[in-house]
Design goal:
- The complex is a heterodimer of chains A (about 240) and B (about 250).
- Chain A has a single domain, classed as MetI-like fold.
- Chain A has eight helices and no strands.
- Helix content of chain A is about 75%, strand content about 0%.
- Chain A is an all-alpha fold.
- The longest helix of chain A is centred in the first third of the chain and has 41 residues, at about 5-45.
- Chain B is about 40% helix and about 25% strand.
- Chain B has a domain at about 10-90 and about 165-245: P-loop containing nucleotide triphosphate hydrolases (Rossmann fold, 3-Layer(aba) Sandwich), CATH 3.40.50.
- By secondary structure, chain B is an alpha/beta fold.
- In chain B, helix 3 (about 100-110) runs parallel beside helix 5 (about 145-160).
- Chain B is built from nine helices and ten strands.
- The interface of A and B includes residues 119, 223, 225, 226 and 232 of A.
- The complex binds adenosine-5'-triphosphate and magnesium ion.
- Magnesium ion binds next to helix 1 of chain B.
C-alpha cells in the first residue's frame, strides 16, 4: 500500500481529530484572551494590591510548562474533589497559559501608548475607565493583533499536549493509527502536514493583512507612523 | 486686575515634588478673569511642573489651588470640576491618532459632560471653525501639519468651554512658521477675553499678548510684573541675565 493510499484511509479520522483540536483552540482562546486582557489591565493598575497578584499569576503561567499546568489540572485538582472531562481540563490549562502569555502582549500594547495621551484624557476630565475604553485600548489593539495571531498559532500547535490526557485531538488520532499499523513515520508526517496547513494559512493571511509585521509572540511593535507623534524639543536657555 | 475683583485662579504656597525632591517652592499667584499670564524662565525652572500642578496632573505636594475661591483636591467632585473648568494644551499636542479631528474635539463634551452626541458634534464643529480648521474635521491628526494639530488640540480644550486655559510651550515643537499660526490663534483667544496661563519661550508673545509676566528660576518665582515692565525693565539680575541670553541668541 502506498503512503498516499494510507493517508487517504487515515484522513477522515484525522479530520475528526482536527475538529477537536480547533475546538480546543477556540475554547482556550475564548476563555484565555478576555482573562489575559483583564490581567494586563490589573498589571498596569496604579494600586499595588491589584498589580502584584496579577503579576504573580502571569509569571506562574509563563514560567510553568503548559504540560505541567495540564497535569496539575488533570491529576492535581481531582485530589481537591474537582473532576472534569479531559477536554475541559485541557481547555482550562491551555486557557490559563493563554491568559498568562497574552496578558504580557496586552500589557506591552497598553504601555506602548504615550503617557501624554493619558494625561490629555485626565486634563479633559475623562474617567480612568473612559480613558481605557476610548483612547488606550483602541490604539493598543492595533499594536497587539500581530503578536496575538502569532500566539494563536503557537496555541493551536500546543493543543497537541492534550494528547497526554487522552483528548481525542489530531495527534492522538495519529498515534492510535500508528499503534495499529506501526507506520509511525507516515502517520506523524500526515499529522504534521495537517497542523502545518492550518498554521501556514494563518500566517499567510496575516502577512497579507499586515505586511511587514512578524507574528512573533514577544515583539510588540511601537505604534506605527502617525500613531505616536510626540516631539521632544530642548531649548537653549 | 482691579483690587475688588475676586481672582479666578489662586495658587497659594504651591510646592511640587517628585519623590521628595521639591522642584517648585512655595509659589503664590492670583490670576484674574480675562487675564493672560506668561510664565517664563530657563529650562528646569519648574514652569511645566507648576502648570501641571494647577490642574492636578501633578498634585501639589504642599499649598492650595483655588478656582473661583473654592479649594481643589479635597474631593473627587472638586477635581472633576477643576478638570471641566481648566483646559490644557501640551507641547506635543497629544491628539488621539485613531480619531479624526472632529472626534478628538467632541470626545470630552460627549463623555465628560455627557452631552448628546449631536450636540457634542455641533459644539466641536464650532470650535474647529473657531480655530480655522472646519475643513480638516474628518482628517486624522497624522494627516495634519504640526500647526494644525496644535490648533485642533486647542479646539479640543476649548470644547469643554473652560474658564482657564493652560498652555505648556505650545509652539516649541513647531518650526517658526507653523508656530506663528498657533500664536495667532492664541492671540485671538486672548482678545476674546479667555483667561490664560502660558508657559512660553516666545518673548514677543509674552511682551505683546500677556498682561503679566512671571519669571521663574530654580523652582522660585524670581520676579513678576506687568508684561511691559518686566520685559523692558527687569529688576532682578537673574531676570536680566535670562532676558539678555534669550534675546542675544
Ligand atoms: N516626572 C518627573 N520626575 C522627576 N523629576 C522631574 C519630572 N519632571 C520634571 N522633573 C524635574 O523637575 C525640574 C523642573 O522641571 P520642569 O519640567 O517643570 O521645568 P521647566 O521649567 O518646564 O523646563 P523646560 O523649559 O525644559 O520645559 C527639573 O529639574 C526636572 O528635571
Ligand atoms: Mg517645561
Amino acid at each position: 500500500m502506498s503512503t498516499l493510499n494510507e493517508w487517504q484511509d487515515y484522513l477522515p479520522d484525522y479530520l475528526d481529530g482536527l475538529k477537536v483540536t480547533l475546538r480546543l483552540t477556540g475554547v482556550s482562546l475564548a476563555g484565555g484572551l478576555p482573562l489575559g486582557l483583564l490581567l494586563a489591565l490589573a498589571m498596569t493598575a496604579r494600586r499595588r494590591t491589584v498589580r502584584w497578584p496579577a503579576i504573580l499569576l502571569v509569571e506562574i503561567g509563563r514560567g510553568a510548562p503548559a504540560l505541567v499546568v495540564l497535569y496539575f489540572v488533570y491529576y492535581g485538582l481531582p485530589q481537591l474533589d474537582l473532576t472534569w472531562s479531559s477536554f475541559v481540563c485541557a481547555a482550562i490549562a491551555l486557557g490559563f497559559t493563554t491568559a498568562a502569555y497574552t496578558a504580557d502582549i496586552f500589557r506591552a500594547g497598553i504601555n506602548s501608548i504615550p503617557v501624554g495621551h493619558r494625561e490629555a484624557c485626565q486634563a479633559l476630565g475623562l474617567s480612568h475607565g473612559q480613558e481605557l475604553r476610548l483612547v488606550v485600548l483602541p490604539q493598543a489593539i492595533r499594536v497587539v493583533i500581530p503578536p496575538l495571531i502569532g500566539f494563536c498559532i503557537l496555541l493551536y500547535q500546543g493543543t497537541s499536549l492534550a494528547f497526554a490526557v487522552s483528548v481525542p485531538e489530531l495527534l492522538s488520532r495519529a498515534y492510535s493509527q500508528a499503534s495499529i499499523t506501526y507506520q509511525f513515520t507516515s502517520t506523524l508526517v500526515l499529522a504534521g502536514l495537517v497542523y502545518a496547513a492550518i498554521s501556514l494559512s494563518a500566517v499567510a493571511l496575516m502577512r497579507a493583512r499586515w505586511p511587514g509585521r512578524t507574528a512573533s509572540v514577544t515583539d510588540v511593535e511601537p505604534p506605527g507612523e502617525g500613531l505616536a507623534r510626540t516631539t521632544e524639543v530642548t531649548h537653549a536657555p | 486686575m482691579t483690587p475688588e475683583s475676586k481672582p479666578l485662579l489662586t495658587l497659594d504656597g504651591v510646592c511640587v515634588a517628585y519623590r521628595h525632591q521639591e522642584v517648585v517652592h512655595d509659589v503664590s499667584l492670583d490670576v484674574a478673569a480675562g487675564e493672560v499670564v506668561a510664565l517664563i524662565g530657563p529650562s528646569g525652572a519648574g514652569k511645566s511642573s507648576l502648570l501641571r500642578a494647577i490642574n492636578f496632573l501633578e498634585p501639589p505636594s504642599k499649598g492650595r489651588i483655588l478656582l473661583e475661591g473654592v479649594e481643589v483636591g479635597g474631593s473627587r467632585r472638586t477635581l472633576d470640576a477643576l478638570r471641566r473648568d481648566v483646559g490644557m494644551v501640551f507641547q506635543s499636542f497629544n491628539l488621539f491618532p485613531h480619531l479624526t479631528a472632529l472626534q478628538n474635539v467632541m470626545l470630552a463634551p460627549e463623555h465628560t459632560l455627557g452631552l448628546p452626541r449631536e450636540q457634542a458634534r455641533e459644539r466641536a464643529m464650532r470650535q474647529l471653525t473657531h480655530v480655522g480648521l472646519a475643513e480638516r474635521a474628518d482628517a486624522k491628526p497624522g494627516k495634519c501639519s504640526g500647526g494644525q494639530q496644535q490648533r485642533i488640540a486647542i479646539a479640543r480644550a476649548l470644547a469643554m468651554e473652560p474658564k482657564v486655559m493652560l498652555f505648556d510651550e505650545p509652539t516649541s515643537a513647531l518650526d517658526p512658521e507653523l508656530g506663528a499660526e498657533v500664536l495667532a490663534t492664541m492671540r485671538t483667544l486672548a482678545g476674546e477675553g479667555m483667561t490664560m496661563v502660558v508657559v512660553t519661550h516666545e518673548m514677543h508673545f509674552a511682551e505683546d499678548v500677556a498682561d503679566r509676566v512671571v519669571f521663574m528660576a530654580d523652582g522660585h518665582v524670581v520676579e513678576e510684573n506687568s508684561a511691559g515692565k518686566l520685559m523692558r525693565d527687569p529688576q532682578h539680575p537673574r531676570t536680566q541675565r535670562f532676558l539678555n541670553a534669550v534675546r542675544g541668541r
